[in-house]
Amino acid sequence: MAAAGPFVPPTPTPRPRLAASFPASRHPPPIFAGAYDTAPPPEEEDAGDIDEAAPRGGGGGGGGKDRRRAVRIAWEKLVRWSRSWRRRNRSDVLETTRKVVVLGGGSFGTAMAAHVAAKKADLEVAMLLRDDLVCRSINQSHVNCKYLTEHRLPENIVATTSATDALAGADFCFHAVPVQFSSSFLESISTHVDPKLPFISLSKGLELNTLRTMSKIIPKALGNPRQPFIVLSGPSFAVELMNKLPTAMVVASKDKKLASSVQQLLASPNLRISTSSDVTGVEIAGALKNVLAIAAGIVEGMHLGNNCMAALVAQGCSEIRWLATKMGAKPTTLAGLSGSGDIMLTCFVNLSRNRTVGLRLGTGEKLDDIMSSMNQVAEGVSTAGAVIALAQKYNVKMPVLTAVARIIDNELTPKRAVMELMNLPQVEEV
Q1: Which residue among 247, 277, 307 closes a domain?
Q2: What is the pLDDT of residues 174-207, one digit of tens each?
Q3: Which CATH number covers residue 415?
Q4: Positions of the region Disordered (predicted)?
Q5: What pTM was estimated for this model as a whole?
Q6: Cα→Cα distances 312→71, 156, 307, 318, Å
Q7: Whose CB has fewer CB within 10 Å in the chain, the N or C terminal residue?
């Protein structure tokens, strides 16, 4: 065997100084947007030591230590920046908020009521409900006997069927009524609503006959075009919020100051809140992802495999982007928490109501049987037809979401829909 020659280490490739990546503020940006990301990092923190972290070696040995040290220093600087930013931006929103009202007692409305109530013991959280039995359960046992029954609710949550009592003196209002029932419900309580009361919409979908989102439904139903409005959306299952698992969402409003206030009201160690001014993008993504989740469930129910699932969701994301951008949404919104984040959650996780509907359709069950057996609303079922009407209005082709609408209308079987989609012309990806 020939003897190995002497090892000659390769000439190390010069690396750019880490500080050069951030010439404006000399600080790295946060890893992802969150509760304190609306301004540049504080300038007085010295970033000079970042130069010392630049790796000077090549492969192993000392070079590996230098790289580990660079990572450690970068992380420590991020933590220092985060602490400094929080100190500078402490808010009195929670301190000055005395009462919050939640309209609706479904799973997510209940979870949001519990989340806010847990942040401040003397905060009154009123839940306006239709069911006397659920009211008594919450007030006497501190449990919602219909939804999230295994979770005890904070004692500062009070349930009532009286709109007058619930809305009196409220500082913020969370709207958690299903979209298709929202107009009639809001009209019935409009005389009790303060015209300056901010409405935070938790409802996702499109009104079937009018194609309106909640940002249009709420002001119209209340008879006040200037009613302050915020939409809260993102990948968030109610049960995980109740279990205080790490969650990130986005609040969107045309009023940046209002969005910031809601951000500060909701942000907690287990809930990160980003802000946006793209109300259209957040609402449309939240509505259309429910229809796509039904399609994903159908693929799962038919056992069509992972390749098919990935292709379908990718195509669905493109269709949502085509329509939403035609309606004025920002592409960055669709790539964020309320877009791709929410799509991934609802399409790939079994806790999704809409995915469950699709899964059962894919196994051959009838839609009427599925809907009659559910105690929660799957908004994608009613939204599907509205989505297709929107697509026609904006002249956008949406083959996957159109197929879902035709399956729901019993005009196409899931098997036939798959065959027709696979036989569409082979075209350039856009």
Answers
A1: 277
A2: 999 999 999 999 999 999 999 999 999 999 999 9
A3: 1.10.1040.10
A4: 1-67
A5: 0.82
A6: 38, 45, 9, 10
A7: N
